[in-house]
Amino acid sequence: MSKARRSPPPAEIGKPVRGGVLGDIPAAEFAGSAKWQVRLITEHRNGRSREARFELDLDQERDGRN
Predict the structure, then answer these.
(1) Each residue of 31-56: pLDDT tens digit?
(2) C-alpha span between 13 and 46 (Å, rounded)
(3) Which residues make Cβ contacts (< 8 Å) with residue 24, sequence separation at least 6?
(4) For 28, phi and psi rounded to 5 degrees?
(5) Do residues 13 and 22 make contact, with C-beta atoms less than 8 angstroms apart?
(6) pTM tops 0.85
(7) Which DSSP helix (H) or strand (E) runs through 52?
């Protein structure tokens, strides 16, 4: 996997998002590597935080989509 590259966080979201988009990552951000880990950290008003990670593999040859 590529070295960690951090994108600036989006503007603060002031209300819950249910079934919507939290933000967009421009395709150009994925240049330089076929494998990425997207990490989302949320923080509740009471200070508790949660983290989710997603492995993103852009290698089309390996998954059969040439």
Answers:
(1) 888 998 888 888 888 999 999 999 99
(2) 15
(3) none
(4) -60, -25
(5) yes
(6) no
(7) strand 49-57
